[in-house]
Amino acid sequence: MTPGELLKLSGAYWSSCALHAGVKLDLFTKLAEAPATAGEIGRATDCDLRGITMLLDALAGLELLAKQGERYEATPFSADYLSKKSERYLGHIILHHHHLMDGWTRLDQAVRNGRPTWSGPSHSQDDSVRESFLMGMFNMANQSAPLITPAIDLSARKRLLDLGGGPGTYAIHFCRHNPQLRAVVFDLPSTRPIAERTVANAGLAERISFQAGDITSDPIAGGFDVLWVSQLLHGEGPASAAAILKKGVRALLPGGLVLVQEFILEDSRTAPLFPALFSLNMLVNTTEGQSYSQGELSRMLAEAGVRDIRRLELELPSGAGIITGVAG
Ligand SMILES: C[S@@+](CC[C@H](N)C(=O)[O-])C[C@H]1O[C@@H](n2cnc3c(N)ncnc32)[C@H](O)[C@@H]1O
């Protein structure tokens, strides 16, 4: 690494903050509709002219806007991913990243005392923080699910349990891909309205139901033949994650398929970089959460009574991996 690269790394959050502000102020939706001057956008968003001009210029510098004379407009890319009117809108996950920033600025404190810097998004009292988190998960899952569902044969399966399923994105994609399949999304009670909305929007309310509960303390009804556990275990410590897997596997009929998606560390724990950094995200946001290695996840699955454990050969845009096995 060069000193220049080091300083670029140190100041990378300036670019992130410019993007976050652009999404918070919803500039991209407006500028995908029609080009506008800084004055016009400033009036439409109730922003100071000096401030909005600087932000628009920086976003143009980041190639998220195009500037022609005094007018700015969304690029084809930002119109596709940053306009609220696009089906591919990624603003929810960007706002979620924004909500995590305050906690990350106090990472040194979390490292010193081993405790999170705030309640974390799952348990936040702020509805908008929880909504960005859950719809951010919807954004992320919509990128990966179209690659995952064709790679997993559920053609003979009837009932899928989506444990910690959030907005139900994976249940939706698995059910779309497998017309005989029904699913239950199990998640915290506060998730219900968002999950029911996404399931209804997908036209699958007849086949996907929501069960409200706390996975660490509430029972789960049995009779499933697929267990899908995506990005849930990293929010828990090793003992709790193992107990959750045991509970999920107990809800399966013998021969039930188990699928666990996580950001998986190599045994060195230093790579890939994303799960190593994600562990710090769990330090800031949870009391015991962390990224796990393939060996740790495989051992938890084996202790839960799962056999034929292996990792699926899938390259996903999120960098996550999927470990599978069979119950009983
Ligand atoms: C990172 S999100 C993953 C959502 C979804 N599985 C996905 O991959 O898109 C974790 C989910 O677990 C849920 N969750 C966290 N703690 C939980 C608990 N104790 N009981 C039930 N659900 C929980 C959260 O509400 C959230 O929806």
Automatic annotation (TrEMBL):
UniProt xrefs under InterPro entries: COMT-like (IPR016461), COMT_C (IPR001077), COMT_dimerisation (IPR012967), SAM-dependent_MTases_sf (IPR029063), WH-like_DNA-bd_sf (IPR036388), WH_DNA-bd_sf (IPR036390)
Active site residues according to the UniProt entry: 234 (proton acceptor)
GO biological process: methylation
Calcium found in the keyword field: no
Domain of life: Bacteria
Pfam family, one: Methyltransf_2
GO molecular function, one term: O-methyltransferase activity
Domain O-methyltransferase dimerisation: 8-83
Species assigned in the record: Pelobacter propionicus (strain DSM 2379 / NBRC 103807 / OttBd1)
Domain O-methyltransferase C-terminal: 104-306
Keywords: Methyltransferase, S-adenosyl-L-methionine, Transferase
Protein name: O-methyltransferase, family 2
